[in-house]
Amino acid sequence: MTLISSKSTASTETLLDELQATLANGTVARRVEMLRRVTDLFIDGAIDFSEQQMALFDDVFECLIEHIEMSAKSLLAHRLAASEIAPPRTLRKLCDDDAIEVAGPVLSKFEPLDDQTLIKTARTKSQAHLLAISIRRVLSRAVTDVLLLRGDDEVVRSTAQNPGAALSKRSTTKLIDRAAQDDHLAACLATRPNLPRHFFLKLLAKASTTVRARLEAANPKHSKEISSAVRTVTRRARSTPVALTKQTEIAHELVRSLHEHGRLDEQLLEQFAEQKKFDEANAALAAMANVPVSVAETMMIESRAEGVMILAKVAGLSWPAVRQIIEMRDELVGGPPTDLSPCKATYERLRPSTAQQVLRFHRMQEAAAPAA
């Protein structure tokens, strides 16, 4: 049989004629041997092939795929998946194969595979196909959204624990809501290296609520002790290295510097909130209310607008700034929008002395956590 070398190309007609003759009269072993030789030839010179040569390989592989057993197709998929380039039509055909033994290697390992192919496969194929996609080294938000929409628990957990899977804000919110009933998923999310701080806090609040409810249902006589213990663990978890991302640390340091140099004011805090910069806004509100950032985080995430209003009243903020912070919090945490009209009336009635008393209570709880 005349085959393509990396330096010269036999005519398409000659190659396909010889291929057709082998497919028509050759044994299964001969077809598999031909596949091996063509694959060797392709992998050895793939980087140097022209578009015409690549198209020829596509023709050859497509003919062979139609006439070989699944085990041979699986071997082809494994070999092409490990390469840097592959015939595009052949790849799509392998990805579209119903047998995960064939589609899996390409879906999970071939890095140049385009999002369009991945999304089509994720929308139409089995959970095994989705699971293969979920472990790719890099996943775009568009692909991840489909995996999380169609995937079963195993696919969702695999996607969530993949550090290379980009998560959209909408998908992250849904995952956190789902994690409230799935301890394994909660653990997968909590260990993501770049999970935004406000999402981590929301995850912690929801997960701790679920744990508290389960423990209290099993031990109704000790509900008060259980509730206190879960709050303590939650506060400790907030300060762990996993919880504090580099981005959060940078934001806190920026706000600390602004505050020390007298440049932190209501207008800047309002800008942080308007730009949905939770870390900066939370740290700024904490500094202006003279409380630790962890206290402000607890009040911002675990309570509704009441916590924001108490902090804001102690900080001496005007209602427009408070409204901006509440709207930021609602959007980032993913809860239902707060009814601002009664909040405004409550804020205007709230006395600074009352807000200070409530804040002292929160600070005492925070200080008592290590001893507990």
Would you count the extended β strands for me?
0
Give me the number of helical elements. 22
> What helical percentage do the residues reach?
over 70%
What can be said about the biggest beta sheet? Answer: none
Low-confidence residue ranges: 1-12
* Element string (H = helix, E = strand): HHHHHHHHHHHHHHHHHHHHHH
Strand percentage, roughly?
under 5%
Span of the ends, CA to CA: 79 Å
- Overall shape: it is elongated
Return the average pLDDT rounded to an integer: 82
Number of domains: 4
> Structural class of the secondary structure composition?
mainly alpha
Whole-number radius of gyration? 29 Å
Keyword list:
mainly alpha, 372 residues, single chain, elongated, 22 helices, 4 domains, disordered N terminus
Tell me about this structure.
With 372 residues, the protein is mostly helical. It has four domains: 11-99, no CATH class; 114-166, no CATH class; 170-244, no CATH class; 247-368, no CATH class. The protein contains 22 helices and no strands. The radius of gyration is 29 Å and the shape is elongated.
